[in-house]
Fold:
Amino acid sequence: MSTKFIRYVRSLTLLDALTTSITDPYGTMHHLVMERSPPPYLIRSILGVLLVLLAPIAIYQFSYDAPPADVTFAYAFGLSIVVAYILFIPMLTVFLRMVGVKASSIRILSTTVYSLTPIIPIMGGYYLGNYFTIGRLSIVVFLTSGRPASGDWYINLFPYCLSLMKWGCFLVFSQGVRVLAKMSFFSSILVATLCLIPLLVAFVAAVTLTETIYNGSAMQIWKYLATLQNLQGSL
Structure:
């Protein structure tokens, strides 16, 4: 008499993908990028990142009728981010194929999208800490007006939050590259580091293009990015 054992493997849900991208980046990326065809949750992942970044700002502006301190800069910065991402995808595809990673464009695109998902839990955690310590989302005041709220000491932790998000995104991206190329952990870290070159080129090109549309925006963008990394020196 024989007994058959049936193994059931549950597919990752969107919530699983968002929460396990940090705790198990390799397993998550392997499942989403390689085992699922086409890669799932791309649109919802992008919307989730945009929601956690923009929704608190939009709610604050609507509730207090507080427009950005510089509307033109807000348009210029947003345009730079969008154009940089659009330019980065083909640059990354060419670069990866130059180093021997022969993956389809949709899998390369999905790797970049999933690598942004650590922003959601990390930024969400920062919001919660901000609310329970200050009593409101004071970081939104700074992101909207460019000035910290009175008595806001918690904003000094924001550069650390940014660094954590960058490292989280980099780790997930490197494991996506590892999955695509079937390489070792250390090799994937090296290749992912080299991928920062096309990312930087794409962003510089995007800022330069934005400068032709919004004159004087390039200097504002670089200054704003520097301020986010050194808030204590700017307060």
Remarks:
- The CA atoms of residues 115 and 173 lie 5 Å apart.
- Residues 14-234 form one domain.
